[in-house]
Amino acid sequence: MDLLIFQVPILMVQASLDGILLGILFALIAYGMALQWGVMNIINIAQGDLVILGGYITYFMYLSGIHPALGVIVAPAIMYFVGVGLYKLVINKVVDRDLFISILATFGISILFMQLMNFAFGADVVLANSEFGTTMLFDNSVTLPNSKIFSAIISIIFAIGLVVYMKKSKLGRAIRATAQNARAAKILGVDTEKVYAATFGINAALCGVAGSLVAITFTIHPYMGLPYTIRSFMIVIIAGLGNLPGVAVSGMGLGMFEEFADYILGTEFRIGSVFLLLVLILVYRRFKLSKKREYLK
Amino acid sequence: MKLNKIILSFISAFVLLLSTSVTSFAKVVGDKIILGSAISLTGKYSSNGVHTQNGYNMAVDRINSMGGVKVGGKTYKFEIIYYDDESNPKRAAQLAERLISQDGVEFMLGPYSSGLTKAIAPVTEKYGVPMVEANGASRSLFTKGYKYLFAVLAPANLYLDVAIDLAVEKNGGKPVTVAMAFEQDAFSQDVRLGVLEAIDRTGSKKVIDDKLPKELNDMAATLAKVKAVKPDVLVVSGHTKGALTAIRQIAEMKVDVPMLAMTHCDAAKLSKQHGKNSQYALCASQWHKTLTYKDDFFKDGMTYDADFKKLFDYAPPYQAAESSAALLVFKDAFERADSFDKVKVRDALAATNMQTFYGNIKFAEGGQNVDKPMVLFQVMCDGDNCENKVVAPTKWASAELIHPIPSWSKR
Amino acid sequence: MKNNNIILYAAILIFGVLAPFMLPAFKVQLSILCILIVLALTWNIQGGEMGYNSFGNILFYGLGMYICASVQVGMFFPLAEWTESGGEKTFVHSPTQFFQGMAFGLLAAAIIPTIVAGLIGYAILGLRGHYFAICTLGLGVAAGEISGGIEIIGAGQGFTTPPFPDVGNLESRGQFFYFLSFVVLVLTFVAVKSVYSTRFRLVLNAIRDNEDKAEAMGIQTMKYKIIGWMISAFFCGLAGGIMGGLVGYIDSTDVAFDGREMGVFMVLMAILGGKGTLWGPVIGATLFHLFKEGFWTYFLGWQYVALGVLIVVIVIYFPEGLMGWLREKYPEKFGEVVDEADRKAQVELK
Fold first, then answer.
1. Which segments of chain B belong to CATH 3.40.50.2300?
2. What span, in angstroms and rounded, lies between the C-alpha atoms of B349 and B332?
3. So what's the ipTM on this one?
4. DSSP readout, B306-350?
5. Complete DSSP assignment for B361-372
6. Do the Cβ atoms of C16 and C182 come closer than 8 Å?
7. Do the beta carbons of residue A40 and residue A199 sit within 8 Å?
8. Regarding the domain delimited by B158-285+374-410, which CATH topology (the fold level of the hierarchy) does it fall under?
């Protein structure tokens, strides 16, 4: 147990801010995960790999001299089509099935993607420099790289944009209708195939945005996808499906928890404690519900 | 019953498949000496796995084209069988077993990373297969009494203790405070042990000791602590990912430390990816092209660097150089043993005493190379043009160490 | 029918006993195959029979691995110094020490995970469906990450297990581990088979088909769920202990709590062969191992692409696995009575 963070209280501010900014990025990925889970009943294990792919798109823009921040526009555009293509090739065959089948099928896709990215892009760890500089607060004892602030702002913009789109646009309403009752929607004339493809495409696009932000803020590597997948569905589980504000709050909460765990328990237990937290939350919920003789659905 | 017939036919198909997939390479086929190698073509070590493979291949081509290996009056050429260890120790151990028992290989080249070498070493030792490895630096490899393991590189604990000594020297001989961040893998943790020993030796104090999980690409928490505690030295080791992440976040968070010492800077192509931000970083290296070691095959460091660039289109990091050296060691041993008998070759390897473009090579009892010190170089920039200049040991230095690192506000 | 079965089992047993001598170069491969079959068989108790898809059985496997090695070392030498041996100390096990240590180690490797399963079962098995799957996934990953930070078992530097002592000849180590894994495989198979022929299996199936109804009928489902998990834990722990000795080097996330590979593979193997059957996991594990090794040899660098495609194909086109597919084609062989008129009627509807 390291109590440095309590001895130097300004670190708590640093940890909180870092955690919130990080969490907002996770929440974006979680949003995509929740979308396809709610609409198509699919848990996409390849989510993190889609994120990394988005990151590579931005990286190549950076290599060609284009400012990587523009990646947040280009990457989702390209990834949308990747998502639709993936849907038409593989996902449409698992949509009507058991949730578990989707986990395994997307696991297979995840393995494929990791390898293909390894071949296509090489195995080097890379990053894209945005040269955004740093914001200093509290007399330089709290530093926030502007790339992290940029990530948070872009994530919020896309998230809000998506919520609005879902409420107002025709496709958005079709998606929500299909999520509520696919059969009824079909009968009423909604082309569910198109809806599913679009949903998966939107998810891939969200991952593309997140990936660009990861490339700008951290580093990417073909095999780095899985942690993003796992964090995103942890957030969805904690928030509960269909609970969008919950996803945002859980995301930020998770981010902050990670940072504080890093300081207090030690960096080596940072990731382990996050998963332990997941287990504890699920167990707690289970006991609470069992008192009412119910169980988690 | 049909079901049982089906099951029985599976078993027979199984046996048939197994028997048809037995390939037999043995140690020498025709005029080729077969060397087996585990390489990380996929997985988290794949980038360095490729550097290692390129180093091996370049050396094989060079030696083969320059007269090959002379044993028993005949001339032989090298050939390497590669398998992908997937950056996984279990796979690496399986692969070693496979190469030796199924493929009949009798001489091995090492994998990339200490963890994988630690997994393979017990296997090669058990079968008495000499292995020359170039990328497993963990000291624990050399304390197990392995007789068939030979490492051309300096052990991990020597990587960064020089930095601590340098810091103390620059502090007028007084002890310093040290902050450390090491990745959770065999190699980095061993570097850490070396640093801890240096700290003990100089009476210095460790103020931060963070262990970074392998999947983590964010060191902000550690760096925030560093800012709060203000140590004299910050040491970071986390393979390529660690070096890249550290430099980026140190620049972003404007962390001021008088001395920053890391590993894997050149494999991370720091000066290329980060430019001016990587300035003043001290890097531990097994080799640098400006060192004046020579040999008959690669001439010297600068020539090796140029030739490698021509072949593979990028500058060779030390991982490639040391891999090439491994082949030189094998050639020398085969010729001195004048035989392909494993024990004779092993004894010849143990008696190695040679100079290569990579450095001097002489093995101690445990298998480590005791004749090649680590070098420390510092990234120095002239405008936007950044280069790595050797600053320690002084015998090889081409520039003077810049210490302390100027604060970010002045850069 | 009974006679045919006995011939079959005898054939397999004989093959198993003679295998390391007939195919000496494949001893390690066969040992690994035995371990994979054990993992698939035990996963099937949760996944196939009970309908609880567990991604966390790897927890018991990893625990078994660390426990076996720790006991084997700790009985004779100070454990902290063995693992801290990035240092100068090397300890050598005498043959008696090695085998004694292994025996007690495996015993502990089987018992302790079983107790763990019993303790956490009540909490974890109360979750259903994908919540159970993800919770167990979290357990597995957390175990891997946390054990990577514990110094006494090696932390990031890993744990080199005691080397096989100098007995017999070069083949001895391979033979020892092979027979060990084969014996454990036979034990697991016998245990699972006998469990399946009792009411226990029917209860598990009832839980799978409709847990609420089963509860309403008065079955204490939790008791059966926990016992099922404890059985899996017992054999997974053994398998882990053996694998640790076989590989020789334990790394927390890559070898012991290898969630992303072993953890998922045990699921895939059972599905490939056909979950919910006795032989399904066995066949699935065998085929899977063959494919994987084949890809690795012939598709160097591309083996994971091939594996990924294989997984997608299995999951989409053969989700019932090989046994399931056979069951559809030849239901009579599985003891299902088919009403011909009924069947024709179904065909016509299409």
1. 22-154+291-362, 158-285+374-410
2. 8
3. 0.85
4. HHHHHHHSSPPPHHHHHHHHHHHHHHHHHHHHTS--HHHHHHHHH
5. EEB-TTS-B-S-
6. yes
7. yes
8. Rossmann fold (3.40.50)
Q: Do A234 and C138 touch (CB under 8 A)?
A: yes
Enumerate the residues of chain A whose CB falls inside 8 A of the CB of residue C133. 100, 103
Residue of A nearest to B253 (CA): A143
Distance between terminal CA atoms of chain A?
A: 37
* pTM (predicted TM-score): 0.89
CB-CB under 8 Å, A105 with C145: no
The whole-angstrom separation of Cα A81 and Cα A75 is 10
Q: What angle do CA B238, B243, B244 make, to 5 degrees?
A: 125
CATH architecture of B22-154+291-362: 3-Layer(aba) Sandwich (3.40)
| Structural domains for chain A | 4-296 (1.10.3470)
Rg (CA), chain A: 20
pLDDT in tens, B244-266: 899 989 988 889 999 999 998 87
Give residue B403's pLDDT: 86
- Nearest partner of B118 among C150, C84, C29, C159, judged by Cα: C159
Give residues 57 to 116 of C whose Cβ lies within 8 Å of B: 85-90
A172, amino acid identity: G
C128 pLDDT above the threshold of 90: no
Interface of B with C in 173-212 (CB under 8 A): 182-186, 188-190, 193, 211
What was the pLDDT predicted at A143? 85
Structure confidence at residue B24 (pLDDT): 47
* Whether pLDDT at C14 is above 60: yes
Tell me whether strands B353-356 and B74-84 are parallel, antiparallel or unpaired.
unpaired
- Kindly indicate the confidence band of residue B217, based on its pLDDT and cuts at 50, 70 and 90: confident
> Using CA atoms, how far apart are residues B226 and B247, in angstroms rounded to an integer?
14
Burial profile B190-215: b = 16 or more Cβ within 10 angstroms, e = fewer = bbbbbbbebbeebebebbbbbbbbbb
Whether B227 and A134 lie within 8 Å, measured CB to CB: no
- What is the total residue count of chain A? 297
The residues in B 15-74 lying below 8 A from C, measured between CB atoms, are 15, 17-19, 21-22, 41-42
Q: Between these two residues, C297 and A51, which has the higher pLDDT value? A: A51
Chain A residues within an 8 Å CB radius of B47: 122-125
